[in-house]
Amino acid sequence: MPLLEVRDLGVRYGSVAAVRGVSFTCDAGEIVTLVGPNGAGKTSILNAVAGALESARLTGDVRFDDVPILGDAPERIVHRGISLVPEGRRIFTTLTVGENLRLGATPHGGSAEDMVSVLERFPILAEFRRRPAGLLSGGQQQQLALARALLARPRVLLLDEPSLGLAPQVVGDLFRAIADLRDEGIGIVLVEQHARRAMKLASRCHVMGHGTFVQGLEGSDVAEVVGAYFGGDALP
Ligand SMILES: Nc1ncnc2c1ncn2[C@@H]1O[C@H](COP(=O)(O)OP(=O)(O)OP(=O)(O)O)[C@@H](O)[C@H]1O
Ligand SMILES: [Mg+2]
């Protein structure tokens, strides 16, 4: 039984059917990517799984460790072991790095020991702990968003376009950090525009058209088919 199983997920905003019939799984220690054009429904899928869509109508079934979680409150889902790093990072720019991190603490994660472990993983955050987060570079802010999510000790991480707006060198560092988390046994659902790079890490790629999956790919088929959908320019 997979750790995270999404079956026939549907998301509607009023009369807009943003996601239809989406199914995928993510196991411990693997990276699954979702790629697709703007407005395809990638963020809606991650937010639905994380319980972060209050006003949408959700259908289908999402199971974590075989327990149905679709429609549960976000804090309950975090508590079960799923953490979302949202699109645009959503860090609090006027709060310090340390204050932002403390906001990631939950009843079962965020102890002094957990804090030491994330600061060891991202040493720059330790150095800048007392600075307002708004003064960090884009790459450092993304590290902060990841670190905050890790404080809840997730077993599955949902990452929504973590590389967006980052310089190529920084994207390389970020993808290495994501691969390390995978190697430590965390399951990762990765929404990415750097499709080719993401695919090097992923065990499966789901390509989205509007609202639904149009291709499921494994291994070497991926670069070719993703290229057909997105063209060479979108593939750094
Ligand atoms: N709160 C909302 N209310 C109404 N429609 C919404 C809402 N959020 C998203 N949508 C619509 O749902 C569709 C899917 O949006 P979503 O943000 O999930 O796509 P996406 O694949 O993440 O896009 P992007 O690549 O731009 O981040 C779009 O048509 C969008 O306009
Ligand atoms: Mg999105």
Question: Can you describe this structure in just a few lines?
Answer:
With 236 residues, the protein is of the alpha/beta class. Helices cover 35% and strands 25% of the residues. Residues 232-236 have low confidence and may be disordered.
| Spatial sequence of strands, sheet with the most strands | 6-7-8-3-9-10
CATH superfamily of the largest domain: P-loop containing nucleotide triphosphate hydrolases
- Straight-line distance between termini: 35 Å
Mean pLDDT: 90
Structurally, the number of domains stands at 2
Which CATH top level class of the largest domain fits?
Alpha Beta
> Which geometry do the CA atoms define?
globular
* CATH architecture descriptor name of the largest domain: 3-Layer(aba) Sandwich
- Count of DSSP-assigned helices: 9
Which structural class is indicated by helix and strand composition? alpha/beta
CATH topology of the largest domain: Rossmann fold
Number of strands: 10
Order of helices and strands: EEEHEEHEHHHHEHEHEEH
Proportion of residues in β-strands:
25-35%
| Low-confidence region ranges | 232-236
**What ions, cofactors and ligands are bound?**
adenosine-5'-triphosphate, magnesium ion
Radius of gyration: 17 Å
Question: For the report, how would you describe the main beta sheet?
Answer: 6 strands, mixed
Helix content range of the residues, please? 25-40%
Question: In words, what does this structure look like?
Answer:
The chain is built from 9 helices and 10 strands. It has 236 residues and is α/β, with parallel strands linked by helices. It folds into 2 domains: 4-81 and 156-231, P-loop containing nucleotide triphosphate hydrolases (Rossmann fold); 93-153, no CATH class. Strands 6-7-8-3-9-10 form a 6-stranded mixed sheet, sandwiched between helices. Strand 4 and strand 5 (67-68) form a beta hairpin. The longest helix is centred in the last third of the chain and has 16 residues, at 168-183. The relative contact order is 0.19. Mean pLDDT is 90; it is low at 232-236. The structure holds adenosine-5'-triphosphate (ATP) and magnesium ion. Adenosine-5'-triphosphate is lined by residues 13, 16, 18, 36, 38-44, 87.
